[in-house]
Amino acid sequence: MNKLNSVETADELKRLGFVLIVNNKHANGYEHSDLSGRVFVKMSKTGAPVCEQPFLIHPDHVASPSWEAIKALSPTQPNVRYKNTNVTGFPKVKGSDSKLAVALDISTRADLPQLLALLGHRGFGATAKLQAEMVEVEQFDAMLSSNDIADTEREALIKARIGQGGYRQALLAYWGGCAITDCTVPALLRASHIKPWCEASTSERLDPYNGLLLTPNLDLAFDQGLITFDDQGLIRLSPELDLDSATALHLHTHLRLRQIEPRHCSYLAWHRENLFRK
Fold first, then answer.
1. Shared-domain flag, residues 147 and 219
2. Where would I find the H helices in the chain?
3. Total Cβ atoms within 10 A of residue 242
4. Over the stretch 128-149, which tens digit does the pLDDT of each residue have?
5. Domain termination residue (choose one: 99, 122, 145)
6. 186 with 199, same domain?
7. SS3 letters for 253-268?
8. Rounded CA gap, 131 and 20, in Å?
9. What is the tally of helices (H) and strands (E) in the chain?
10. Smallest Cα–Cα separation from 234: which of 259, 213, 270?
11. Is this model's pTM higher than 0.70 or not?
12. What is the pLDDT of residues 144-163, one digit of tens each?
């Protein structure tokens, strides 16, 4: 199981602009101007990385509306009764010098900003904004269900919805450009769902790991099932795509996604099984 250890977690926090405030033997505390409160990272006496649940958050998050989403980002069940004497500012355990925290694992560096957003970090998008966008998506879906909308119009509306707002911005932030090529011109890039809108749940429609940012030729080929990707991000060409057409579109078997996380894989598996023209 891929997980960040304490050293990797601390390095990523510092890269994201967090400042070391509490320097203790067993837990270091970090703060950011855009986050109310602080987070901690476990430390070991020897200085060796701590591998099990190194990230510590305030126990109040267990009762927050974001708790289920926070749990979903942890690859293991969080320890909601973790005790540590060094988590300064966290609530004290009655009859003890220890203080209470929640201990979490983090799968990848890309997951940490999402987790910080759920903790209320304004720099990574507040939870309220995500909840509002989910409501907006559900309302949009209800509108699409109307019998007065033709299939072609419905498809056009979906493509327009995907190409605007927070979802496209999330893909631009994650990929920084085309997921395959070196193109970084936003106007030439399309936000594309791996598992299509019509098949996805509301949360899947907003999940950046269900999205690729692609140039138009790649986007259309992917949307039509003429290309797909394996779990290592390597492209697969459909037998229905003839060699001359593939060459004209600059498609070849050495292309691959520039980065790939475990959370992409279930969506890619769905695409290979349900859309790819074998």
1. yes
2. 6-15, 67-73, 111-118, 127-144, 151-162, 165-175, 202-206, 216-223, 243-248, 262-274
3. 11
4. 455 555 555 556 566 556 666 6
5. 122
6. yes
7. CCCECCCCCHHHHHHH
8. 31
9. 10, 10
10. 259
11. no
12. 566 666 666 556 555 555 54
